[in-house]
Design goal:
The complex is a heterodimer of chains A (216) and B (251).
Chain A: H1 2-41, H2 46-60, H3 64-74, H4 84-110, H5 113-122, H6 126-156, H7 168-178, H8 183-212
Helix pairs in contact in A: 1-2, 1-4, 1-6, 1-7, 1-8, 2-4, 3-4, 4-6, 5-6, 6-8, 7-8
Chain B: E1 9-20, E2 23-34, E3 38-42, H1 49-56, E4 64-69, E5 72-73, H2 78-85, E6 88-91, H3 103-113, H4 119-132, H5 148-160, E7 166-170, H6 178-193, E8 197-201, H7 205-211, E9 214-219, E10 222-227, H8 229-234, H9 239-249
Parallel strand pairs in B: 3-8, 3-9, 6-7, 7-8
Antiparallel strand pairs in B: 1-2, 1-4, 4-5, 9-10
Classes of the chains: A mainly alpha (216), B alpha/beta (251).
Chain lengths: 216, 251
Amino acid sequence: MVQFFIDNFPLLRDAFLKTLQLSVLAGLLALVLGTLLAAFRVSPITPLRGLATFYVETFRNTPLTVVFFFIIFGLPQIDFAVGFFTGSVLAVGLYTAAFVCEAVRSGINAVSPGQAEAARALGLTFGQSLREVVLPQAFRTVVPPLGNVWIAMVKNTSIAAGFAVTELTASLQRLSNANGGEILLVLAAVVAGYMLITVPSAYVVSRVERRVAILR
Amino acid sequence: MTDRPTGEPLVRLTGVNKWFGDLHVLQDIDLTIDRGEVVVVIGPSGSGKSTLCRAINRLEAIQDGEITIDGQRLPDEGKELARLRSDVGMVFQSFNLFAHKTVLQNVMLGPTTVRKQSKGEAEKRARELLDRVGVGHQADKVPAQLSGGQQQRVAIARALAMDPKVMLFDEPTSALDPEMINEVLDVMTSLARDGMTMVVVTHEMGFARRAANRVVFMDAGRIVESATPETFFTNPTSDRAKDFLSKILNH
């Protein structure tokens, strides 16, 4: 068993790092784009609201694997080719942005309307009141749901295994082919890899949640 | 107050109408508020007095008529409207202090984001204003740590930090415990004495008598009477106002 880990450590380590890299990059993309979409969804400008709603409904209701196919094999047909890794980041990030948007939007709706009203009465523009008053309060209430979105997203990166990215799930396929007798060990190693990312995240989320809690 | 207002119009509402669905909440409102004038708006609940107050800085959009502030028509949306609102201070019934910011930050937000003042300049002025309303020593607390009366005084300081041309008060003492009402009214009375133009929606008849130049009585979306406090309280002309006053003053 020890020998198995010594022999396969480099592959597992690289695969783990690849999953981590995919998760962090896609997560950042999803957070930024999702927040922007949420701002669009509550904006007074009708076309922006429509655009964001269209985006969310499209990505939320499409299986992630189909999004992967579209980005990696569909986009080259309209002369926009991306590599497997970049394509995977885009697929996971664009897909997850829809869920981030809905989580942030629910947070925005949970902020009392009087807060935005007071900001507008002071002369803040819509963007300023969102940035200075509404979003900082909204994020506090969406830390737990965003934590869930993040964990789901980390696991969703496994689909990249089907698109030539050697992350944890791809290493599972490879290792189990080579070590048929030790399949349980292989599984345990891969599951441990995912948990190494998600379990500490859950801890961080609960810490952040306590730190940012506001008195009302 | 004894000082007469300047006679120079600052806020003017002409033929203002508003509906909430089928409900005609503001009906043909004509009202002019002069610079330096303190107008107290009273009336039964549902009479449209809060809506009137909120229409002046377009927190409520009107469907018909015109509102001008200092000669400028209220824009419909966007940056122009924001600029105009920055000259109109507003104090809400439920205070609406920014929950995630300290008292000091609450007062500094408008001047730093809207007026682009430096932090130092804004902080100095914010501390002066907080001292003026008597909550200077609470500057570093968050709103939830303050009593209602203190929160409302901070809200007044926050509005004053923008050097508004006019201040709107939408039932500023209605959410307060009785023993805290006076501390807020005292601040408002001193503002009135200093010549601030004010529109105050309230049920505090003592404040109206003491500080108002004019009392506007509303019922069912209309302005029924508009008179000096002495005339209104001693000799109301409409039956509706007589009835209202008899209910609130005789106990």
